[in-house]
Amino acid sequence: MSTLIMIDQPPYGTWNGREALDMAFSLAAFDQSASLLFTGAGVIWLKRAQDAAGIAQKSVEKNLSAAPIFGIEAILADRSACQRYGLDEASLITGVTLVDANGALLDQYNHTAFAG
Length: 116
Prior knowledge:
Elements: E1 2-7, H1 16-29, E2 33-38, H2 60-65, H3 67-70, E3 74-78, H4 79-84, E4 96-99, H5 103-106, E5 111-114
Parallel strand pairs: 1-2, 1-5, 2-3, 3-4
């Protein structure tokens, strides 16, 4: 059984995305297959070298760097959302795979959960 956790919220200003990340980590920690898909404003999570000190928060880059340790199978980014937000492969954190977020992708998973 595989689960795709979709995060479409920006990384700062709401806890929805962080809660979804915690859910994915929990699934993976209990040997449940889990992957993350960032789409919409959620792709901002994946921008390399973020500085969140100005808003008194920790950078989400550190949170995401723990994904392989927890057993997250894939970190996926919607290609069109990345283009919309001016992100390319060079500006993304290590380990992200660009994909087309469509029905064919969703069909690869038994369960899908949304942040927010």
